[in-house]
Each structure stands twice: as C-alpha cells, then as structure tokens.
Amino acid sequence: MGESLSRLNQRWFEFVTRGESGAHAALFAPLGLLLGWLVIRWSTRLVSRERSTPWRMGRAHQGLILLSCLALTALLPIAVIAGRCQSLVEGGSIDWAQWRILYHLGLVTLLFVATVVDLDQYVIPDEITLTGTVLGVVGAFAISNMQLIPVWVDWNHWAPDIGPEIPQWIRTSHHWHGLVWSLTGMVVGAGLTWLARIVSDWALGLEALGLGDVTLMGMIGSFLGWQPVVCVFLIAPLCGVVVALLLRFAQGRRALPYGPCLACAAVVVLFTWRAIWERTRELFGHPPTLAGLAILIIGGMSALLGIVRLYRAIPVAQRRRSSDPQPPPAESPLPGNS
C-alpha cells in the first residue's frame, strides 16, 4: 500500500511539474468549478446568517464567482510550473509544487468566501478566518515544504559556495520549520494589522481596520509566511484603489470594506512572489531597516485609512457646500470596514 501511494505521488508530481500547460489547465478547471460552487454555498449560508433571513445570490454574481474561481484555479498551476513564479534558490522550489498548489488553492477559496461576505455585510466571520488559520498551520506542519520562502533567509550574509545564510535546522527539520514558519506568518500578519488599527484609533479616534481584517491577515500569514504577508500589507492599499474604483463605477458604492483589498493583494503575491522577493530580499534580512519601514508603513497607512473614513462620515451636502452658514441636513453615516 505504501509503495502504491508513493508511485501515485510520483506520477502526480511528474504530471504537475513536467506536463503541458494546457493539460494542467484542463485538469484543474473542474476543481475550479467545484471550489466556485463551494464558495457560493458557503457564502450564501454566512450572509443569510448575518442577515437573519434567507438570502439567495443572484445568477450574475454566481456566474462571476464560478468564472473567477475557474480562471484562478487554471492559471495558478501554469504560473507556478511554466512561469516559475514561486521558484527560488532559497526555497519554494518545484519539488513540492503538486501539494503547494492545492494548499494555496485552499487559501484562494477562503479569500473568495471572505470577500463575498465582506462586500455584502461589512464583516468577516470568524468561521472563515479561524477555520482557514487552522488549515494553514496544520497543513504547513503535516505536509511541510509549503513555504514560499523559509522563515529566515539573510542575503546580507551571502557566501559564494553556500549562498545566503539559512539556519541549519530549517534544512533538516522540515515539519517543525513548517509549524514555525506558519505561526510566524500568522503572528506578523495579524500583528501588523492590529498595530495599524491601534495607531489609527490613537491618532484619529477612528478604527480604520476591523477585527475581521486582523484575523483575515492572520489567516493569510499562516498560508504564506511572514515575508509574503508583509508584502500583502504593502500592496493592499494599491489594490484598495482598484477595488474602490470598480465598486464605485459598477455599484455606486462609497463605503469600501478592506477585506477584499487584502484578498486581492494575497492573490497578487501568489502570482508574483519571485519578482517581489528578488527585489526585496536584502531588506528582509536586516531587522533594523525592516522595523523602521514597518513603523513608517503602519503610521502612513493608518493615517490614510483614517482620513478616508473621516471623509466618508461627513454628509455629502456638507462636502459640497462647506461655506454655507446653515447646517446641512443630517445624513446617516455609512458602515465602516469589517
């Protein structure tokens, strides 16, 4: 039985790593439809629970979710295998690609569910983030080698014969490294978001980020590790601009939940990790520089989100006629971020 499983795993590995891109897309496309169906069912149940009334997703939105899951599920293996978007000399090699792809598709599914619920209810239920975090940590420990990059790589101490400095225990204790790597990513992801939340509350008296965003970033970190989740934190405001414009033109929305921005940034990191890492790897090996950058980023992001939220709280009439001596009619504030 053990030999049969070993042969099956070897054939699965050979297909994923050496097959044609069209074959990869054809194999993973049905899985994308299955994941899309799961997203629709799960998010429908969660939205119905939050609304305290039965809710049915529109056919157009169902079709959009199915197409999006189909596209991402088919494109991720092609990007990983043919595009080598996650292949690095320090880790994230092709050797475990067949399982890492499935691991990351699980993350993508959770991000889709969180996005659907957050867009409708401005909340990210713990059922999504806590379940996802457990899956991320357990998968990293049980399977091992799921990392995009090891928990510590120092390119500031590089040697021609051995490459960058990587602690020896990382090379030999794969399962324990998986556990440490995942837990570190969870703590850094949730910690950065929590600090941004505290700073915005202290400086502006406004919570720019909700607890759902904190737990969502913890979940993302448990799947990606601490270096990639820092990049997610940096890219998310840029994704927020795109998401805000899309929602503004498509639905006329002014209130923007931040969960979809974090989800979008996580997907961007999955598809572009090699390019990101090769341009920033010296930074991640120098703790003082990284700490200073984190402080600047958290402060700047908190101020930006707080100003945007403060602007949204001002009634529209007052924005247009700020010089009018008569107070404008009161307008109910829009719901805030999750």
Features:
338 residues; disordered C terminus; two-stranded antiparallel sheet; 12 helices
Please describe what this structure looks like.
The chain has helices spanning 2-18, 21-51, 59-81, 97-121, 126-143, 168-172, 174-204, 211-224, 226-251, 259-280, 287-313, 316-320, and strands at 154-159, 163-165. The chain has a two-stranded antiparallel ribbon. By secondary structure, the protein is an all-alpha fold. The radius of gyration is 22 Å and the shape is globular.
Number of domains: 1
Uncertain segments are: 318-337
Series of H and E elements: HHHHHEEHHHHHHH
Strand order of the largest sheet: 1-2
CA radius of gyration: 22 Å
Ends: how far apart? 48 Å
> Largest sheet, if any?
2 strands, antiparallel
Q: What integer is the average pLDDT?
A: 83
Strand content of the residues, in percent? Answer: under 5%
The total count of strands amounts to 2
Can you tell me the overall shape? globular
Proportion of helical residues: over 70%
Number of helices: 12
Alpha-beta classification = mainly alpha
Quick overview:
This protein is mostly helical.
